[in-house]
Design brief:
Number of strands: 17
Largest sheet: 8 strands, mixed
Strand content: 15-25%
Shape: globular
Oligomer: single chain
């Protein structure tokens, strides 16, 4: 693909679409808009494109091979059946921005998105303010690390880390480790710390596992089938997909790389009982077990925070009220990158382009319907008040 010239935007500019977040879905949406001739600006809180991947634990590798990890218009530059690291994915995002000429402002956290009286949006980002006809929220689902309240009741001599802050076993104190949360990150980290020589406990309900050994010949043969299922069967268009969405959103996806047998072989103590409190400073499980540990790793997920959007967009379940990315009640507002947003594929790097294309097509249609031919909005009076 021929590289498009990068567009630049000054302070206080009006731009057709602001994309909040420079992750895979934010960048894919910018690409899809550009391919349709629609201008967009991506703003991101991180200092560098891809930093959200650089901040992950050092041993992280994607569960999908490189052949399924490319964004639209640019395959991932690695052998098809290799598994990229977090750092490699971060570098790929940077190269994607450069090659596709995507306009990105880093170190620009969004403080507020407010709908104005004429239906446009005021976006306060960093020390700047923009007016946009459309806002695409591409911050995904992982926002604020979630730790139970009783964490404050644990003995101060216990080292506590959320998975978002974990980089490797070198951060841990000598002695036993409790990993709370048995999803994919919990399984990954408990196996790693057990292999590093720590007596390790893994507490929480297990989400199930894909019954094929990761990387095996059977796994490689199954990949095209799994990819087809993720894209065409496990979606909101099918009854099975609609039943699966709330389960995935509440318990996570099944284990892929690390299996229960691997944990057992490494000597990880697996208990289904949840961590529910502290007794004399020690973590306590729902079955009454009190664990004398020196470290706790919280693999307890993240709390979603869309409070920066001044509009009623979140439902009773805490998730945005959207129709596969489109917010019907707030024209011009979109979401991409949500967990199981349109289907299982929405959670995969290689699936980002599909949701992005749908949102970009909707924005393009809306621009034609409203006559925003140039992509820039007329300048608003500085005294204009937000709607409502």
């Amino acid at each position: 693909m021929r590289r498009r010239p990068r567009e630049t935007y000054g302070r206080g500019m009006e731009i057709e679409t602001i994309i909040v977040g420079a992750g895979q879905t934010g960048l894919a949406t910018a690409y899809e808009l550009g391919r349709r001739g629609r201008p967009a600006l991506v703003v991101d809180a991180h200092a560098r494109v891809g930093d959200q991947w650089r901040a992950r634990y050092a041993s992280l590798r994607l569960n999908s091979p490189a052949k399924y990890d490319g964004l639209p218009g640019m395959p991932f530059p690695a052998p098809p059946m290799s598994y990229p690291t977090g750092t490699e994915m971060a570098d790929y995002f940077e190269a994607y921005v450069e090659r596709m000429g995507i306009a990105v402002r880093t170190s620009t956290p969004v403080r507020a998105v407010t709908r104005l009286g004429d239906g446009a949006f005021r976006v306060e980002a960093g020390d700047q303010a923009f007016t946009a006809a459309n806002v695409v929220v591409a911050t995904g689902s992982e926002h604020l690390p979630r730790v139970p309240a009783f964490a404050d009741d644990l003995d101060p001599g216990i080292r506590q880390l959320h998975s978002a802050a974990y980089r490797g076993p070198h951060q841990l104190l000598p002695g036993p480790v409790l990993v709370v949360g048995a999803g994919q990150s919990g399984a990954d980290l408990s196996l790693e710390v057990a292999r590093a020589g720590h007596d390790t406990w893994l507490a929480g309900k297990e989400p199930g596992e894909i019954p094929v050994e990761f990387g095996s010949r059977r796994f490689r043969l199954a990949l095209p089938v799994l990819w087809f299922l993720a894209n065409h069967v496990l979606t909101l268009r099918t009854p099975v997909g609609r039943r699966m969405q709330p389960k995935v959103r509440s318990t996570g996806a099944p284990l892929v790389r690390v299996k229960l047998a691997h944990l057992d072989a490494a000597g990880v103590h697996r208990v289904a009982a949840r961590a529910i409190g502290a007794r004399d400073g020690w973590p306590t499980l729902a079955d009454g077990t009190v664990l004398d540990v020196r470290n706790v790793i919280w693999c307890t997920g993240f709390r979603r925070d869309f409070s920066f959007i001044d509009a009623p967009v979140v439902g009773p379940d805490g998730w945005p009220i959207d129709d596969r990315g489109v917010v019907p009640e707030v024209p011009g507002l979109y979401f991409v990158g949500l967990l199981f947003q349109s289907g299982f594929y929405s959670m995969l790097i290689g699936g980002a382009g599909r949701d992005a294309a749908r949102v970009a097509a909707h924005i393009t249609h809306r621009a034609g319907a409203t006559g925003e031919g140039s992509g820039l909005l007329p300048r608003l009076d500085s005294n204009q008040k937000p709607a409502g």
